[in-house]
Amino acid sequence: MMTIAGSDCSAGAGLQADLKAAHAMGAFALTAVTCVVSEAPGTVRGMQEVDPALVADQVRINLEHFPVALGGGRKDEPYGWSQDTLEIVSLSTCPNKHF
Known about the structure:
Layout: E1 2-8, H1 14-24, E2 30-40, E3 43-49, H2 52-65, H3 83-91
Parallel strand pairs: 1-2
Antiparallel strand pairs: 2-3
Helix pairs in contact: 2-3
């Protein structure tokens, strides 16, 4: 499993929540960090996006070194991830920029 998400310092959302959910299901989760958010319940003080090229590289290196099974791809695309998908991942950093 791999989560592509922002980092929430309060651990109530984002990749920290995904990691907790994966652990509860007995899974090991890889991560690709899209942004770092300074927040607590009801309060967001700041957000810093991770460079899209670095987000895409995190995804690529995880796919190159770990057995991540993803569905929906063609047989000639490793793990179901096409170059188009990686480009979308690199463009989709932190989608909620409205605080």
